[in-house]
């Protein structure tokens, strides 16, 4: 043990003496290990850790599918939920839906995220109340469902952590609910903002046959013991086949829309396609780490060449192979340990930076943490790198020609051909990794620029959005909803600085959209063609004007489009084209006066019925990107707008256009809403530009990180090129002096060093191009408007590396050109 302490002291003294080498290695390790720790924490927390409920890997969702209608996953209907509970492969199942609820008394009510669930929900997630109880079967009966279970956080913030909260009454959407349970701290399934749970009670109308395709719920189930997801899918497929057999006249339409049901792991539904993005980013971090290791190996080779005579002398004087190996290992491990500690600090700072970039807004983003496992992996990596760095001097000593090394008297000489080729090969590997990272960053940057340049079909910079949710207790009838909307919009229009104001359900990037079948009068699908479900937006007069959505033909909604007036609608060109062909796009006036209907029966969706409620098209509006900016022609089947008074919704958002700072109107909007309904809280106030920016987080954050990785990789590769060439110049000073003495020019020596550098770079670029081709499939899903092998981006990456390489080669080249022949020949 004493000799280890002695060797450690000796190692620290040597590192203190060779401060330049030590600081370079520690900082390089800290940056590379810190970046890896931060991204590993993200990947581990988001992708690898199970959802925070027992045996979450056995939780699945069951979703109806209508791919032919543009709806690949549509949630579940109540009738289907009860049917699918009967299959053997599914154990406990529940329906769930998230919405906003006003919680509290009068003007002190707060808007909170609520999970409305069937009574078996907590059994399905295997969660018990910390205090009180969760739901029972009787809580799901109509009239008996006015009970609420609070999260620990809601109990603390809303009820002040009162110990006698169980049995107290809490107003939820202006209806008294009995608090029956408090959940354990930190409980959630995957929605971190949910604060309370209420049970749903279904009546006979909800379970009726004609509600089978009203897919307003998320069905979550726990697989039965011994069952697999594949077995559950097979059994549900069998149910679907029976449904086809009993469909009668509906069968052809069901086949055309491709009706089916999908059983998917809940984890996959929660994460979406974020896993490919995170693995791609982690791959970039690992590439940076490899470049750093290569750089450190090259530094170690250079340092070993300087120390070789000293190490061989100690070896021959009796230090012994084991002692020398131990000393060098301790020296390298001490260096790696210091880099690892600083790397953990950098990793924590990196997570803070990722939070500012919006990483915490991704699925499960609130769970990201640098825990003990990530810290342990970081130190294991650091130790591994330390051992690699120790191997270099050990092998150099053991393979050295002892007599030849000891005969050297300080003359500069040429390094062995093998050592030179090894260092050059390592730098070529750095260049290859750097090229792949720079090309990938360039592709993501070009893609993001294309996406930001997309015209969404509305103006975003001067619009304030503010949401409300109207409780059924005070707004029972459609007339009540319409009356509130009309009064509030009138008050908002009268505010100083307001240019236009309206409201809508289905505002851009809100995530709140309805898609259901609508049919044009006289339209018949071609053989094999599906019905389709466009996005529905309920909007008041003034809404289109507030967002500056273009009116291509006809008129916008007016205050005269009341609930008693003729039913009217606006359509966009995508929907118009599907119903009335290309003429509807080239001549939008031809669409005016056409009629639509919403199917009233699932028996025949093309039949308007004996007394149809016709909807007359009075206008055509421009295309808009409502769900995401990267939306393409095939991603949506179009949008249909209805007057809010004719199709009112309880959830809505006010849109206020102003020439002022939109956020400066926030308090004024709250005041005007309170003037109409003092007990109604306003929430989610944001500019439309902020909404758009939030929608781009999943693309902006990877792009910024990739650019950062590319810059670091470029810097490390440049340092590697410089280090190799500087070492060559230092070791070949005698050779260069001889060349000068024999007539070589300074320009010739400069070109010689430059040529050697660019041979390394070209070799690395060749490997890097192969790597870029191999990664094209991984990148393709992250790009918009640019190919994975875009020639402009790849050529720019080559040019960037070439410039950096030239600068890295120029300094050693100039030093070589200034070699004094007389001084070099005297060495």
Structural class: alpha+beta
What is Rg? 34 Å
The general outline is globular
The tally of beta strands, per DSSP, is 22
Mean pLDDT, all residues: 84
CA distance, first residue to last residue: 44 Å
Helical content, roughly? 40-55%
Largest β sheet strand count, sense and barrel closure: 12 strands, mixed
Tally of alpha and pi helices: 25
- Beta-strand fraction estimate: 15-25%
Low-confidence stretches: 409-415
Q: What would you note in describing this structure?
A:
- By secondary structure, the chain is α+β, with helices and mostly antiparallel strands.
- The chain has 25 helices and 22 strands.
- Strands 11, 12, 13, 14, 15, 16, 17, 18, 19, 20, 21 and 22 form a twelve-stranded mixed sheet that branches.
- Helix 2 (19-48) packs across helix 11 and helix 9 runs antiparallel to helix 13.
- The longest helix has 46 residues, at 274-319.
- It is globular and about 105 Å long.
- Mean pLDDT is 84; it is low at 409-415.
How do you describe this structure in short?
By secondary structure, the protein is α+β, with helices and mostly antiparallel strands. Strands 11, 12, 13, 14, 15, 16, 17, 18, 19, 20, 21 and 22 form a 12-stranded mixed beta sheet that branches.
Tag the structure with descriptive keywords:
twelve-stranded mixed sheet; 22 strands; 25 helices; 827 residues
List the helices and strands and how they pair.
Elements: H1 2-17, H2 19-48, E1 59-65, H3 78-84, E2 90-103, E3 110-117, H4 121-125, E4 131-132, E5 147-150, H5 152-158, E6 169-172, E7 175-182, E8 194-199, E9 218-223, H6 229-245, H7 251-257, E10 260-265, H8 266-271, H9 274-319, H10 321-356, H11 372-399, H12 402-407, H13 417-452, E11 463-469, H14 478-493, E12 498-505, E13 514-515, E14 519-520, E15 535-539, H15 543-547, E16 551-554, E17 568-571, H16 573-580, H17 583-586, E18 595-597, E19 615-621, E20 639-643, E21 651-658, H18 666-676, E22 683-687, H19 688-695, H20 697-731, H21 733-741, H22 746-774, H23 776-780, H24 791-817, H25 821-826
Parallel strand pairs: 3-8, 5-7, 15-20, 17-19
Antiparallel strand pairs: 1-9, 1-10, 2-3, 2-9, 4-7, 5-8, 6-7, 11-21, 11-22, 12-15, 12-21, 13-15, 14-18, 16-19, 17-20, 18-19
